Amino acid sequence: MESAIASSNGFNIKLLQIYRKEKEEGNIFYSSTSITIALAMLYCGAREKTKEEMEDILNLGDQHSIQEGFCCILNLFLKLPSETVLNISNMLAIDKKYKILPEFSNSLKSNYNVETKLYDFANHPAEAQAELNQLIEIATNEKIKKFFPDGIITSDVCMILANAIYFKGLWSISFNKDNTTKKPFYTIADEEIMVDMMFRRARFRMSHSADLNARFLEMPYIGDKISMILMLPLEKHGISFLENSISVDNLNNAIQNLRTVRDVRLSLPRFKLEESLPLKQCLMNMGMRNAFATDADFSGISGKKDISISAALHKAFVEVNEEGTEASAVTGMVMVAKSSSPPPPPTIFIVDHPFMFVIREMSTGLILFTGSIHKL
Fold first, then answer.
1. CA gap 228, 245 in Å, rounded
2. 3-state secondary structure string across 49-80
């Protein structure tokens, strides 16, 4: 499981920095866990150069141990407390005339609990799209609607591989709504925006990273299995430095250095985001190009070099309020035929300028969601 987690977390940082080059300004939110699970499922059928490029961007090793690792991750989520909802749905939709190898479908079933469904993409692509969008809407508790846009599922589609992740967690200690007031949030452009600023005075685990010039604060959800890590630059215009400088190592170091601070006055904006990520372009910029080319080799799926990826989609939703956090994300791959001393003064932690956050599983360190907020 450790290799799969290392792969997912390493990919998470690469994706953040590649995507920020594509989107120089504005908010970012995505689930690297959703994306890596979708890619790992596809990796089962990749061969030759296609496989090698996927190994490079995901830092994958032995295929068997990787698939086994992701299987263990999925099983880990079954052990969360009842107050925490974390559902992961994996879907494989195949045209009824397209034949896939039993080894491929069996691997997805045993490692990812994938249910295979047959559709008539050739003759009824619109009906298939409507049904798949409905399944994804149900899997994300109606937070992500019309995931597949019109025209993306056409009559030449052979196979669609999708992963949906939905999370809802309640803070271990909730914010009092009566303490939420209008306060300013300052953007990179020094624009002042009045936001609903929540307030809570409590104990928190905190740390400081000199490498990232930022403070870290952990907010656990009920059950202490999953937490949100806030990353607040010390300078109001420090978000770009944080995004460009963050790495797996310095993020892990900051989290390992978290220590309990007895009296913290936390001010955090209430916010809601829905973001789409141009996954195909990001993956190509990371070096995964062959999978989208006419000479792609996914012969481990059908026994033939007859398909490539035509579209890679990702959409994510998050809402943070006084009670907790609700987040969901979907990744889809569309495959087509080629073609005790006196108490110290309270610590102040005011999130009133651009910041980052991750939502992570605490025992393994697996990052589920990543966000960078430039504007509210």
1. 20
2. HHHHHHHHHHCCCCHHHHHHHHHHHHHHHHHC
- Of 192 and 341, more confident: 192
More confident residue, 317 or 3: 317
Contact 132, 310 (CB under 8 A): no
Query: At residue 21, what is the residue type?
Result: K
Strand order of the sheet with strand 271-277? Answer: 115-119, 85-95, 157-170, 324-337, 307-320, 271-277
Tokens of 263: 């009296």
Query: Percentage of residues in the chain with pLDDT exceeding 90?
Result: 83
Would the pLDDT of 16 be above 70? yes
| CATH number of the 171-270+334-373 domain | 2.30.39.10
User: 1-169+273-319: CATH homologous superfamily?
Assistant: Antithrombin, subunit I, domain 2 (3.30.497.10)
- What is the secondary structure of 247-286 as a DSSP string? -HHHHHHHHHT-EEEEEEEEEEE-EEEEEEE-HHHHHHHT
Q: Is the pTM of this model over 0.90?
A: yes
- Largest pairwise CA distance in the chain: 76
**3-state SS assignment for residue 196:** strand
- Residue 286's Cβ-side half-sphere holds a number of Cα atoms within 13 Å equal to 28
Residue 89 has pLDDT above 70, yes or no: yes
Query: Residue 62: CB partners within 8 Å, gap ≥ 6?
Result: none
Report d(CA 331, CA 325) in Å as an integer: 20
Instruction: Please choose, from the candidates 10, 30, 59, 124, the residue with its C-alpha nearest in 3D space to the C-alpha of residue 357.
Output: 30
Instruction: Please report, for the chain, the start and end positions of each structural domain, with discontinuous segments joined by +.
Output: 1-169+273-319, 171-270+334-373
User: Which pLDDT score is estimated for 369?
Assistant: 97
DSSP state of 244: H
